Fold this protein.
Amino acid sequence: MVHIRECMRRWLPFVIMAASLGVSPAQDVASPDAADLDLDLVKLKSGPKGRQREAMRKVLLLVHLKQKETWLAESTGDEAVHLAAEISFRRYLASVDMDGCPEEFRRAFLRYAKLLNSFEEKDLNSVADFPAVPLQAAGRELFRVLLTYRLEPEHLLEEMKAMVDEEIEGKEELSAGQMMDIVRGMREALQSGSRPFPAERPPEDRVSGM
């Protein structure tokens, strides 16, 4: 059986820059208190950058779901399945549709994706064979953009987790392969427009501590 929480403690590669920066989102925006932070977010979402922020949120939710497939592939214990999923994830980063996203996000995201795609498939026999690449500078750039638009990585993970939890509610004893199919179906439905993206959860509904 695959437990939905077993992978939730892991970060997407492109958001580990939080640790490398050594700062929290609250420190970076530096507002006096929570009420002011919430007011700033309301103003941002209702202003000219609101649509761009929502486009970024949708891209990142899709990417979270795509990497969830990779985590599940790893849990199958089949190295070939895991490798194929990891390659697919990295290629996905380089090709994801960022229509509506601000140029600074596109630039930072694609810079990071390019680094993760600096490999030749013929050289790979397992995920351990991916070449090491210097991600910190690109990661910091992307993280700064996310914070500028008040998109916090841990909250995006919570949104993805809530989507998957809702999808598998009432289903038990799911194999990793079955979970991969469910998550892939969710992502593809969101991408095609046959399934609407969930509304962003307000701060008071978020659960901290993954």
